[in-house]
UniProtKB/TrEMBL annotation:
<feature type="domain" description="Capsule synthesis protein CapA">
    <location>
        <begin position="108"/>
        <end position="425"/>
    </location>
</feature>
<dbReference type="InterPro" id="IPR029052">
    <property type="entry name" value="Metallo-depent_PP-like"/>
</dbReference>
<protein>
    <submittedName>
        <fullName>Poly-gamma-glutamate capsule biosynthesis protein CapA/YwtB (Metallophosphatase superfamily)</fullName>
    </submittedName>
</protein>
<dbReference type="InterPro" id="IPR052169">
    <property type="entry name" value="CW_Biosynth-Accessory"/>
</dbReference>
<feature type="region of interest" description="Disordered">
    <location>
        <begin position="654"/>
        <end position="674"/>
    </location>
</feature>
<comment type="similarity">
    <text>Belongs to the CapA family.</text>
</comment>
<dbReference type="Pfam" id="PF09587">
    <property type="entry name" value="PGA_cap"/>
</dbReference>
<dbReference type="InterPro" id="IPR019079">
    <property type="entry name" value="Capsule_synth_CapA"/>
</dbReference>
């Protein structure tokens, strides 16, 4: 620009998390061509910011000496943007497009899923509780410190607070409710550290301590200056959160369809107990009310009689019923008691319509669906569409505890499940998470972005590299699947195909600086060719989704169901370590591999912290008939040994049964499947692969890696190193559903080499 034009400047701050403490070592302000290095010879990446027209705003070199990092790019007149930088970015230039703040009118909303601070956070492990009773506030802040610098970069933010916030005694909890979640009042400090504006309470744990628990939670939030949203009393409508953000009126409403009735419907009406644990369900008790004559009834029989009453009669009879049967579950506000705001097919859309008429942007959050399912539920889909038809600008859902897909409905975004955000579950599928970052100009959605998160040791950490891509590709696949979940007559949850209506489009995801831009633009197809020799497997090597179908019956496609066998540092936690999701009780993870040493011939094994889910089928017809072939499995790895050690792979399948909502789930180890190998102790890596038969009765598997026992005292020192460990699920490519998926491997069972062509959709 000629003459005295104003030069653009860049403020780039490198936010590093070290030991749970976030700090900004340097804040830069200067001309666009000024560069300041924050590295002293270690790995580094150049972050270069441009405006919406592509004009340069400036750049900065950011050190990766402490592992993956988050930088914050900000410039006057623009919206600050988090930038996730992985070790694979070292030596590269990462471009970041900054949005104009449109004269201060645009604003950012961050939305995350399920949050709690009790149970395993307080019971602790070998190193003690993360949130100790004596200093719960500091402990809770430490739990969220790694992700807080990114999540609080918003003008308004929401989470699903899935817990009672109270110090009530366990004896005050809801009788016979399977899972009771209670977090100490001081843990609200973590919400403040995250910058949460609206902690929503419309979920199935808000009433875990009955009405007194709802009151305790409301008080704890109010004492911290936070609103109470998503609760009500009886049939009263919930009170919406309404505020003004950068001149725009914004409202937030929350509802749940998870009300406890399914548990009550599952109580037996006849039969005999199987043991002491369920004997109470078969014990007759004397009860009657109004039209219901007094008689001896089991809890299931009493519930069946109660269900035949009118809505008004049910409200009148509720206290009488629960005095006799306190185990009857009701987790929502109705029948004269407090609880979570309940979705009602008539009243709820009417309330959304009324609130939307008062606020320019209305955000609706729904707690609905089936737990641990990656396809959205039919009921959730219907609720989300009804909310948008009533005036919601965006719908955000949670409850399944895992990520699900996104859709556009009539131009409005629906996030079907944001999974866990701060939670203590021990399933591998619940560790991958994300939060949704949206930028608004009034009620117009300017940009939507998925920010990958990984929950490690129950703590949320920003994900980078392969971990971030795996999370994004999983959500991409779920978004493009034309499928939904339903409950069959026998109680099983089925994933069934659907046909999208003309108003609905799957969301598309485009990778940008460690995050993913969400659009409605279709992904461009890319040809992917893979050559596979006879009777061999090979990695596909494509970053994205592929259409898997092949007519050749000898070809199978494979997914790595584990994903954490590379031992590379992929999370922003201030440590240069690749031990995410590994227990490392006997192993050492350094330099990007797992090392196990032994002396005296002893067997030594290490394992990841959670079991791998084994879905028997990924899609069924409405009658339960599978629509995909049976899976087979392979364990693959690179192995290096010293002292002629024998590498041992031990796979323990489990049967996890959560089919009875009235009883605690049962997890039963079935058998150990051992595979061992001896490779030359020549200092080189050797690829090994074993097909494994786990049996049809297991739906989870726990892998162990280590060194097999030898003759006692025969060898003084032995060791085995492992890298690139994969647990692969195979299905014949001719029979899988014809939809793009996140596949990693291809197998040729034939006697001739083949050159395969797939259609890919890059990240």
């Amino acid at each position: 620009m000629a003459g005295g034009g104003k030069r653009l400047t860049l403020f780039l701050s490198f936010t590093l998390v070290v030991g749970g403490v976030a700090f900004v070592p340097r804040l830069l302000a200067g001309p666009a061509d000024d560069r300041v290095a924050t590295t002293a010879g270690g790995p580094a990446v150049t972050v270069r910011a441009v405006d919406e027209a592509g004009r340069p705003l400036g750049e900065q070199i950011v050190s990766l000496g402490n592992g993956p990092a988050m930088a914050v790019a900000q410039a006057p007149g623009h919206i600050a943007e988090p930038v996730l930088l992985g070790l694979e970015d070292a030596g590269k230039t990462v471009d970041v497009r900054l949005l104009s703040d449109d004269g201060g009118k645009r604003f950012v909303v961050n939305s995350a899923g399920d949050v709690m601070f009790g149970r395993r956070f307080q019971s602790g492990g070998d190193s003690g509780p993360q949130i100790p009773a004596g200093d719960a506030a500091a402990g809770a802040r430490a739990v969220v410190n790694a992700v807080a610098p990114a999540f609080r970069m918003a003008d308004l933010s929401t989470v699903n607070l899935e817990t009672v916030v109270s110090s009530a005694a366990p004896s005050a909890a809801y009788p016979k409710k399977r899972f009771i979640l209670e977090s100490p009042p001081a843990s609200v400090d973590a919400l403040l550290a995250l910058g949460v504006t609206v902690p929503l309470l419309a979920n199935n744990h808000t009433r875990d301590f009955l009405d007194s628990g709802v009151a305790d939670t409301s008080k704890a939030l109010a004492d911290a200056g936070l609103p109470v949203v998503g609760t009500a009393v009886g049939d009263e409508p919930e009170k919406p959160f309404q505020t003004t953000v950068h001149g725009t009126g914004v409202a937030v409403l929350g509802y749940t369809s998870v009300d406890g009735s399914y548990v009550n419907d599952s109580y037996p009406k006849t039969g005999a107990p199987t043991g002491d644990d369920d004997a109470w369900q078969y014990q007759p008790r004397t009860w009657g009310y109004g039209k219901i004559p007094t008689a001896d009834r089991t809890i299931g029989q009493a519930w069946a009689a109660y269900e035949r009453l009118s809505r008004a009669e049910q409200a009148a009879a509720w206290q009488s019923l629960t005095r006799t049967y306190p185990e009857i579950q009701d987790w929502v506000a109705r029948r004269g008691h407090a609880g979570a705001a309940r979705w009602d097919n008539r009243a709820t859309p009417a309330q959304i319509h009324t609130v939307a008429a008062q606020s320019r942007l209305t955000i609706v959050e729904l707690h609905s669906g089936f737990q641990f399912q990656t396809a959205s539920a039919e009921e959730t889909r219907e609720m989300a569409r009804a909310a948008i038809d009533a005036g919601a600008g965006i719908v955000i859902c949670h409850h399944p505890h895992v990520l699900q897909g996104f859709e556009w409905y009539k131009g409005h975004l629906i996030a079907y499940s944001l999974g866990n955000f701060v939670f203590d579950q021990d399933f591998l599928s619940t560790f991958s998470s994300a939060y949704l970052r949206t930028v608004w100009d009034g009620d117009r959605l300017v940009e939507a972005r998925l920010v990958p998160v990984e929950i490690d040791g129950y703590r949320p950490e920003l994900a980078t590299g392969q971990a971030a891509r795996r999370t994004v590709n999983g959500v991409r696949e779920d978004s493009q699947r034309s499928a939904q979940t339903i409950r069959a007559a026998n109680g099983a949850v089925l994933t069934v195909p659907i046909t999208r209506d003309p108003d609905t489009k799957p969301a598309r995801f485009h990778a940008e600086h460690g995050t993913a831009l969400i659009t409605a633009d279709p992904s461009k197809p890319t040809p992917v060719t893979v050559a596979v020799g006879p009777h061999t497997d090979t990695r596909i090597g494509f970053d994205g989704l592929i259409d898997p179908r092949q007519s050749n019956p000898d070809i199978s496609v494979g997914r790595d169901l584990f994903g954490w066998g590379s031992f590379e540092d992929q999370t922003v936690d201030g440590r240069l370590a690749g031990d995410t999701h590994w227990g490392t009780a006997v192993a050492d993870i350094t330099d990007g591999y797992l090392h196990i040493g032994s002396a005296g011939g002893q067997e030594k094994l290490d394992r990841p912290v959670a079991r791998i889910a084994l879905p028997r089928h990924r899609e069924e017809a409405a009658d339960g008939t599978p629509l995909d072939p049976e899976p087979t499995y392979t364990i693959k790895a690179k192995v290096r040994t010293t002292g002629n050690a024998t590498a041992l792979f031990r796979l323990t399948p489990y049967h996890f049964d959560d089919s009875d909502p009235t009883e605690d789930p049962q997890s039963t180890p079935l058998r150990d499947v051992d595979k061992s190998t001896v490779v030359p102790s020549d200092g080189q890596w050797h690829e090994v692969s074993f097909d494994v038969q786990l049996g049809a009765d297991g739906n989870m598997v726990l892998p162990h890696l280590g060194i097999a026992a030898g003759r006692a005292g025969s060898v003084a020192e032995q060791s085995v190193d492992f890298d690139d460990v994969s647990f692969v699920e195979w299905r014949p490519a001719a029979g899988v559903p014809d939809e793009p998926g996140a596949y990693d491997f291809v197998r040729n069972a034939g006697a001739q080499p083949v050159a395969l062509s797939f259609t890919g959709y890059a990240s």
